[in-house]
């Protein structure tokens, strides 16, 4: 006999000491695919109350129903994301309602199913948990593993394929949901980045005319002759897109009236009309609406991080974290005297997360030539 013989433990020696109230060891260590022990084989342990089969069957059906609801909710979430597009306030509300409702249904169904499973299918028992100041010894850990396997067997996951399959079906669409949402961050999203680079000011109306400037909230176009008090400021949106939040997120303007002699070289005078200048309202720092205007200094202040732009000098940055001027929109008047946009912004609006040096250099060059 060698020393190694001491390492070979007999089954009886490996058997952990049991704590009163914990369930009996499983007769099989597999979770899936093996037969459950027959009823007569189950050792009754004090403190453990097995669930009666009728209640367990009822719980199984309820839980399966809940998982089915969760499955439908998850599918509904993905379908809602594809079907309901955001746009104006009404469409956005419908989309939010559908996404929130279906996701709630999926999560509630899953939670209700798991709760029903635990309460009506699994046996009830008191668990005595020992605490150790350091890692447990090998024997205790193998005992924990056995207990875990026993719990898995007692949950009936192998014996009850209906529960197992409906649970997997309920979880699958929820796993897909983040992938669908991440799609918006990818370069394959429709027409990116042209969609971000341009605004609707560059588009003509249905009858082929340039878009009028509309006073935000009123729906009225602006006659240049009516906007005649120097120092005045208006918040303006594009005709035809007054309620389209996606379009307005990039296309909202501030319109400022100057005395012609107040305008400095940074402002492109060819894009003004009678001292009226249009700038993007979207701050070039991180995109807050920059619309606090100080009439005496001609400063536009962004309330978020105090970037300050000189409206008389091409909205160049004179203070704060913004790195670029607010883009200026080319404007003119139509035959009826209404202010219109003659083209889109020459550079992208909003936060400067991309390279736009070429476009800005071109704008500066054109300004110098004019
Ligand atoms: S968003 Fe305007 S200063 Fe930061």
Number of strands: 13
The helix content, as a percent range, equals 25-40%
Mean pLDDT: 82
Q: Per DSSP, what share of the residues sits in E-state strands of 2 or more residues? A: 5-15%
Termini separation (Å)? 104 Å
The strand order across the widest sheet is 3-4-5-6-11
Q: Judging from the principal axes of the Cα atoms, what is the shape? A: elongated
Helix count from the secondary structure assignment: 8
List low-pLDDT spans.
1-16, 26-33
* Ions, cofactors and other bound molecules: FE2/S2 (inorganic) cluster
Major sheet details: 5 strands, antiparallel
Alpha-beta classification: alpha+beta
Please give the structural blueprint.
Blueprint (H helix, E strand, L loop, with lengths): L10 H4 L33 E2 L3 H31 L5 H33 L2 E2 L12 H18 L5 H22 L11 H4 L15 E3 L17 E6 L6 H7 L1 E5 L18 E5 L11 E3 L4 E3 L6 E3 L5 E4 L8 E2 L1 E3 L5 E3 L15 H13 L1
Antiparallel strand pairs: 1-2, 3-4, 4-5, 5-6, 6-11, 7-8, 8-9, 9-10, 12-13
Helix pairs in contact: 2-3, 2-5, 3-5
The structure holds FE2/S2 (inorganic) cluster (FES).
Description:
It contains eight helices and 13 strands. With 370 residues, it is of the alpha+beta class. The protein is elongated and about 95 Å long. FE2/S2 (inorganic) cluster binds next to loops. FE2/S2 (inorganic) cluster binds at residues 283, 285-288, 290, 302, 304-305, 307, 320-322.
Write a concise synopsis of the structure shown.
With 370 residues, this protein is α+β, with helices and mostly antiparallel strands.
Summarize this structure as a short list of keywords or feature phrases:
binds FE2/S2 (inorganic) cluster, elongated, five-stranded antiparallel sheet, alpha+beta
């Amino acid at each position: 006999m060698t020393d190694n013989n001491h390492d070979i433990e007999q089954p009886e020696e490996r058997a952990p000491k049991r704590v009163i109230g914990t369930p009996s060891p499983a007769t099989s260590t597999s979770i899936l695919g093996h037969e459950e022990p027959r009823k007569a084989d189950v050792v009754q342990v004090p403190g453990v109350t097995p669930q009666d089969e009728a209640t367990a069957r009822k719980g199984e059906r309820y839980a399966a129903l809940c998982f089915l609801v969760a499955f439908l909710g998850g599918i509904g979430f993905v379908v809602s994301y594809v079907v309901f597009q955001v746009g104006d306030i009404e469409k956005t509300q419908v989309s939010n309602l559908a996404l929130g409702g279906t996701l709630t249904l999926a999560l509630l169904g899953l939670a209700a199913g798991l709760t029903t499973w635990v309460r009506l299918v699994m046996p009830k028992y008191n668990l005595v948990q020992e605490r150790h100041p350091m890692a447990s010894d090998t024997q205790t850990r193998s005992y924990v593993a056995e207990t875990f396997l026993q719990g898995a067997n007692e949950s009936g996951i192998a014996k009850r394929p209906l529960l197992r399959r409906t649970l997997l079906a309920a979880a699958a669409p929820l796993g897909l949901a983040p992938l669908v949402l991440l799609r918006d961050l990818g370069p394959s999203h429709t027409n990116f980045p042209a969609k971000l680079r341009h605004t609707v000011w560059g588009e003509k109306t249905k009858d082929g005319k340039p878009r009028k400037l509309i006073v935000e909230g009123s729906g009225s176009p602006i006659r240049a002759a009516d906007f005649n008090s120097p120092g005045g400021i208006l918040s303006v949106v594009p005709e035809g897109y007054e309620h389209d939040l996606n379009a307005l997120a990039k296309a909202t303007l501030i319109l400022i009236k100057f005395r012609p002699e107040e305008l400095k070289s940074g402002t492109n005078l060819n894009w003004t009309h009678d001292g009226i200048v249009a700038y993007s309202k979207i701050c070039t720092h991180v995109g807050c609406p920059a619309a606090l205007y100080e009439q005496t200094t001609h400063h536009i202040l962004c309330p978020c991080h105090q970037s300050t732009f000189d409206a008389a000098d091409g909205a160049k940055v004179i203070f704060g974290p913004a790195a670029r001027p607010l883009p200026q929109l080319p404007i003119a008047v139509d035959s009826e005297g209404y202010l219109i946009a003659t083209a889109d912004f020459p550079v992208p609006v909003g936060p400067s997360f991309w390279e736009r040096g070429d476009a800005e250099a071109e704008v500066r060059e054109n300004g110098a030539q004019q």
